[in-house]
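Bit of a strange request maybe. I'm writing a small parser for structure token strings and I need a real example to test against, not something I typed by hand. Could someone generate the tokens for this chain?
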Amino acid sequence: MSGEFSNAPGFSTFEKPDSVLLALSGGVDSAVTAHILRQQGFAVQGLFILFSNAHEAALEKARQAARELAIPFHVADAREAFEHAVVQPFCQAYCAGRTPSPCVACNPLVKFRTLADTAARLGIPYLASGHYARVVQRGGAFHIARAQSAARDQSYMLYALGQDILLRLCLPLGEFEKDDIRAMAAEYGLSSAEARKYALSRTAATPPSLRHAALQIRPGILSAPRGKTLAPTEASLTTRWASAGASVSPTASLCSCAASCRAAISSLPLQAAKCMRASW
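Reply from user aminoacidic:
Good idea to test on real output. This should exercise your parser:
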């Protein structure tokens, strides 16, 4: 832990506190992020983004976190945008034998777009999330940089964010280890302090794009683009697309997403969820 925080450029707290809209998931990371931002002098408001019907339990956790934090709480419905910008391309890529990374698409196209649009409507100048990454300024432009924690670094899933987001984005957790965050949560008395890693589970709500896919489990390997074998995997998917009857065998290696993308993808059939759990 370095003791320094990643702030949006140009913020000040001399007279009236600057306002920041935080993507609040209900997990320990975003809850502690709210505390850190308040310590820095920000007036924090929370936004829960609804990506799928599988998110109802997470919504209640976010509401509880907002109550514990005593911050204003908002909800934005991004289900339609998520279906078109993330779920459908995910299915198309997977059935073409590629390994899609849904969070890389979701963050610029849905999550942070929704966060920024809501902030604009509320008149809030700054944005924040609980990602483990940093924002740095080089040569007059802002860039995503790796987190202090190599084990938790999430910079790769934010690389596509534009300047309009980066110039006002706060990422306090980029300077911390996960153990630091859990210790802070316990110190602050947050209920999320004891929460464990998000577990995939079957839900009744399957995104429309996934309803016609039959997924089977089989052992597999993780390969580099030129065919070099990197490592075995506990399972991979054979996807049989009902309309075409085609069969491909993509590697079951997905990005270690934030709970938002995982919650929606968890609405795959149970056998697919079990398979993907190995790669997360």
